[in-house]
Amino acid sequence: MSSKGLHIVLITGWLCLTGTLFAQQQFVFESEFLNSNDTVLVFTPNDYNSDSDKYYPVVYLLHGWGGNYSYWNAIIDCGKYADRYNTIIICPDGLYDSWYINSPVEGENKFEQFFFQELVPEMADNFRISQNEIFITGLSMGGHGALYLFKSDTSYFNSAGSLSGLLDLTDWKKHYGISRVLGLNGSEKDNHKLKKYSVAGDKGSLWPQNKKLIVSCGTEDPFYGINKKFIVDCMDQNIDVKFIEKPGRHNSAYWKSSIDDHFIFFTSLTDKN
Questions:
Q1: Residue 226 CA: distances (Å) to CA of 147, 172, 223
Q2: What is the CATH number of the domain that holds 165?
Q3: What pLDDT is recorded for position 19?
């Protein structure tokens, strides 16, 4: 991987139904840590440009396996959410199946390094971010990624969440590119890798600073059992996690109906509350 640069494109448009101007910026990263460009969408509230002294909370939204940076905006309209919750929303690209980790395989994506060494500084340089009001959540692969990145640097995030997250990779190692990303080869080291890179295998480090989490999962979701077990394990370790379970499958209808719970939860942890 060679050293590369950064290109920035600004896209601004009007939401005709309300007459409200939602700012959307698109960043394209050519990163030394990734095998392909990473496009990142950033949405700011409609009053962002009217008050240059105001700093805003941030919510990173991570998409699931097979998706891309535009997925969340397609199902919830991130501009409306940025305005509704008066927050900056950042949607990076998980590159189809990066799992948002530093792959141990030579030549594979090192997403964690990209996130903290390139994306985070670039966002801080370009936006007025309230540094103690930074949150992250995601769906499916992104739910795992949100908690994984949170535990990697809890000093950066205030809190984290997961919707329908595949929080334990062990039973799904032959699916969703997990075997390739982790370099599984049928050896005794496979179980160690699966435990190391699964959020459910490293719960203790989720809570070094007593920060709250939120986890949601539909009761008809194939990952429901994994989420229930994760919650029980967290409770056994006195990890303060809010668990929301309701009827729902592993689909966009469930994620669209459940993401408000995460924004409301994060808002309750901001300085103004």
A1: 14, 11, 5
A2: 3.40.50.1820
A3: 41
